[in-house]
Amino acid sequence: MVKKSIERIYLILIFLFLYLPIAVLIVLSFNNSKSRVSWGGFTFDWYMKLFQSDRIMNAFYTTIFITLVSAVISTIIGTLAAIGISAMKKKGKAIMLGATNIPLLNADIVTGISLMLLFVKFTKLGMSTVLLAHITFNIPYVILNVLPKLNGLSPNTYEAALDLGATPLYAFYKIVWPDIRPGVFSGFLMAVTMSLDDFSITYFTKGAGINTLSTMIYTELRKGIKPEMYALSTILFLIALILLLLMNYRSRENKQTVHIERK
Amino acid sequence: MNKFRKLFAGPYIVWVIGFTVLPILMILYYAFTNADGALTLQNVTAIAEPIHFKALLLSLRLALECTVICLLLSYPLAMILNGLKIKKQSFVVFIFVLPMWMNFMLRILAWQMLLSNNGIINSILQTLGFGGIQILNTPTAVVFGMVYDFLPFMILPIYNSMVKIRKDVIEAARDLGANNGIVFFRIIVPLTMPGVISGIIMVFVPALTSFVISDLLGGGKVLLIGNVIEQSFIKGMNWNLGSGLSIVLMIFVIASMAFMNSHSKETEGAAVW
Amino acid sequence: MGKKLIELQNINKSYNGTQILDDLNIYFNENKFLTLLGPSGCGKTTTLRLIGGFETPDSGRILFDGKDITDLAPNERKVNTVFQKYALFSHMTIAENIAFGLKISKKSKAYINDKVKYALKLVNLDGFENRSVDSLSGGQQQRIAIARAIVNEPKVLLLDEPLGALDLKLRQDMQYELIRLKNELGITFIYVTHDQEEALTMSDTIAVMNQGYIQQIGSPEDIYNEPCNAFVADFIGDSNIIDGVMLEDRLVSFLGIRHACEDVGFGHNQPVDVVIRPEDIELVEPSEGFMAGDITSVIFKGVHYEIEVMANRFEWLIHTTEFFSVGAHVGLKVIPFNIQIMHKPESSDEKAVDTNE
Fold this sequence. Notes:
The complex is a heterotrimer of chains A (263), B (273) and C (357).
Chain A: H1 2-29, H2 45-52, H3 54-86, H4 90-105, H5 108-122, H6 127-152, H7 155-163, H8 168-197, H9 200-205, H10 213-223, H11 227-254
Helix pairs in contact in A: 1-11, 2-11, 3-6, 3-8, 4-6, 6-8, 7-8, 8-11
Chain B: H1 2-6, H2 10-31, H3 42-45, H4 50-83, H5 86-97, H6 104-115, H7 120-127, H8 139-163, H9 167-175, H10 180-209, H11 212-218, H12 225-234, H13 239-262
Helix pairs in contact in B: 2-13, 4-8, 4-10, 4-12, 6-8, 6-11, 8-10, 8-11, 9-10, 10-13, 12-13
Chain C: E1 4-15, E2 18-29, E3 33-37, H1 44-52, E4 59-64, E5 67-68, E6 79-82, H2 94-104, H3 109-122, H4 138-150, E7 156-160, H5 168-185, E8 188-193, H6 196-202, E9 205-210, E10 213-218, H7 220-225, H8 230-235, E11 240-248, E12 251-254, E13 257-260, E14 270-276, E15 282-284, E16 291-300, E17 305-311, E18 314-320, E19 329-333, E20 339-343
Parallel strand pairs in C: 3-8, 3-9, 6-7, 7-8
Antiparallel strand pairs in C: 1-2, 1-4, 4-5, 9-10, 11-12, 11-14, 12-13, 14-20, 15-19, 16-17, 16-19, 17-18
Helix pairs in contact in C: 2-3, 2-4, 3-4
């Protein structure tokens, strides 16, 4: 029983380590005083200031826009790519998978810089370049979520559909698509999460006029703490929570081992 | 049908060439030329200059410290999580993985706030009678921030590889006479190696190449190789130098991954999630 | 008879609120091939795991060679287990797998090498020392699992449905292998399976279990020829089980007719179950049999024809090597010796019966 207590204490310690900072942020977001230490009363002021700040709201909308657009486009390209890759022979497959891994394993800073060097040759840095960059690092995540689903498909169901008279397109829509749909969806969600979270790549490819939440927070943090940031943290934390719940709800329904499910 | 299906990957192939291969070629170009366009190795050998070399060593040291700490913290955690009753398990693992999905920047903010001289930790220490500790703007703070940021990335692959160990394999070991120690060192540890290696890669590489954490928690006093590279692009406008140093960095990344891969029979492929 | 090597006394085990074993008493003699046979959920695997030490009973004792081992951990018991899914160590070579238990016992390198060679020879996999687990087929993995267990020279070998995942031919080969091993090594085999043919082939003694109770213990012939209740009769081999009335000793009535039989002691006018094996029924001219009816189906099974006859509103099953066509009108004939009488169960649950060897 001593073992169980030690285990429990350890879990709690790590839990505190991970969540204490977040908890303090959330508490301070309601603090009616700029101090980091003393409590000045409950208030929603910082949330109001948050929504009133043009800078912050602009960054927010920009982030949402970039995130959604790049996620959608990368999901389309990625799903098509997964379908194509699954039909390749061993050699081609290996090359494609290797290429897919490069953005994943490469350091953020190198990816960001290399993309920037490419972009400036052809155009000014701005919204389009950021979008291109986000799509580039999102596609691999989509592929890695859809490909296992495709590999797990029995080849016979598709052939059975053809045998029964379906056209390839109809067979795909009725047989293949329902099976890969969970992978497509989780790939999409992962792309959303990666885009929301990204800093380094956005930092190098955005140019002067654009700001996402991450880059805006970066500049603000160097100037000094503003409590509006705490309010922003709380909201983003809630969004992450919801997204993750969504991802897990999906994967529990479909018994993937994508995230934290036990088989 | 297969021939037709392969074409679906077409758009992606174009994308890969355009946005993965070409950019790498760009960096190589800038790395091996100087401002006039002539071929040179000076951007790469610049790593040997004192400032750059110091930054590289510091990065290696901090990344190593961070990785080791994450490993030491994560392994017992994964074991405990694996031992939980199944009903509780998903939920608890979820809790430990959730911070990973919170905005990376804001997690740094959280630590900056806690560690600052008039932050909470210091206030508590002072009210308790200890002197204040000066952590912010030191390498220690940066390691703290790195561990905080990357810990979930180490927990997850180790946990996943532990979950895959079938119960009957452990029972077979006990059946053959193994006590807890032998089960741990000869069965569990070897079978979780792929997960450990995934975890190490997922922590060491970002830690080595990070510049944001050292920026915000190091206050400009902690110069990592990532900072040097970033500055040469954003402030110094010396793209050649920056590219050259990036190549050195990439070599380190590739070297450490090759080292890791040679030490494992089977890494889990790329999907380490 | 041999001495009692393992004894389970008054074992109770429940899991998640369900009672798996209820006051189970059973013992296993030395040097025998003993099989626990029953359908899924009957408690046979739980019993095996209790012996191996992977479960502890809620109450009751487990004795090994007279000593109480109820609280001993698996690694302290002198038994070894062959697991259903082999449970080989995928990160070790075959030789390392087999040597695992020996290394723990701190045997010398020379001893271990010899033993590994010997074990591989025993299971007909010479030269496989340095192969990896993945490179082996299912049947080979199963044999390595057996080698890994027996190399430690346990007094008792526990086998948990080890042949389930193999195809028919391989399974049959392995069954003979196991019998050979048992004779060569002289250790006690305790085998768990739901496959009655397997049990009949390999065992010296079979314990038929259902719902946590032992229904019958005996040699394969006893169990097959003299099932003691409807469950056993139905589980082992095919049977025709009919409601009947024991009119007096050696006379039973069922389905509207009377027939001579050889059982005594069931009383007068007592309701009983009548069991006749399909291969014991002969198809004859309608006038020569005790009952007549029409053939409703004929299926060729290789070894025999499986023929169904509807007579006196009962669907009879007959095994015969002669061909008959569907629709033919035939008579059923059986000798009194082959009519088995059983007590009706007292409740819908079959309770434990006297477990004497």
